[in-house]
Amino acid sequence: MSSQQQDGGIVHQPVFTGSADLSIPTLRILQQDGQLYPGATLPEIDQALAVKIYDTFLFIRALDERMLAAQRQGRISFYMTETGEEAADIGSTAALDNEDMVFAQYREQGSLAFRGFPLENFMNQMFSNEHDLGKGRQMPIHYGSRDLHYMTISSPLGTQLPQATGYAYGLKAQGKANCVICYFGEGAASEGDFHAALNMAGVLKTPTIFFCRNNGYAISTPTSEQFAGDGIAPRGVAYGLKSIRVDGNDVLAVLKATQEARRLAVEQHQPVLIEAMTYRLGAHSSSDDPSGYRSRKEEELWRQKDPVIRFKNWLVHQGWWNEEQEAAARDSHRKAVMDAMKAAEKIAKSPVEELVNDVYDTPPWHLQEQLSALKDHIRKYPDFYPVTSWRLTQDNSTGEGK
What we know:
It is built from 13 helices and nine strands. The chain is of the alpha/beta class. The protein has a seven-stranded parallel β-sheet, with helices on both faces. Strands 6-7 form a two-stranded antiparallel sheet. Helix 6 (192-204) links the parallel strand 4 (180-185) and strand 5 (208-214). Helix 1 (47-72) runs antiparallel to helix 10 (307-318), helix 2 packs across helix 8 and helix 4 packs across helix 11 (323-344).
């Protein structure tokens, strides 16, 4: 048998292997009433970590509720909530070292919040003002933070997957004791980048954790119409990764699985695929109406599995949380989000020059010509560009903005 042939034995009659021959169980630790399943083992967690995770849950609920309403009011152009999926990204980020790199898709604001991203930075990004770290050049919710090791989000689906493998290969080459976690939905697993990324990770043995949020829908396409196999986890096995499936609404299961995955990735350079089975309780985005492709009855069944309520029940059983703390935290987060939103929307937008900065050390002649033509166009039709034309007018009053 050659070194390239898998040791599955030799047969002399056809034997076909199907998806049913590879059964991947689902890890569950916490029941909905807050009790552990018999025989379940807790992850590494203490009161401080548990309360931080739960407080992040409450913050994200407050942020999502307020900013979706802001989009409906026309104050921002776009938003995506992660309601129902908080245990997946927050629980897994809690298992990481602060210097492990995060490659997010676009529903992992909880991961960034857990690492301490300031509320004003969330708001500045969504309002694309001049304090936005991305200088107003991204859609809302496309965050990024160099300080928090959170790679800037890009809209094209799945592109972060091979990028994560490459970044992890760099960590391995430098001998760093860190890993990369890469988030994506099960819909993104249908992109070619998914297969290229896993294959590279398996061959090169990169310290990468591929974290799939299987929430049942790729926008409006249910999983039954996306693939015929047993979900996403078996694909990792095919590419030489360790794979595990967890209840994505059970934050303790997510935390434990990711803690173990990180050990494999960092200590053994063994890439891992985690498939978290969860559900998107909200719409895909502020542009989506889920009533057109799923029933209220289905949604209600999943509301009964709310990950936030499940974890709260466990905290209460531990004596680490009570209703007074709950009310105070919710009120505090709502007020903070509202105050930050009102402040951010009053801040001026980035100067139009920021469109051509940062790509080159000095903008080349053709970009300067295009910028000049753009400014002339805005000045000619100021009523169509009220925010930008205002800044150009202000610049002209001081002899700038030419």
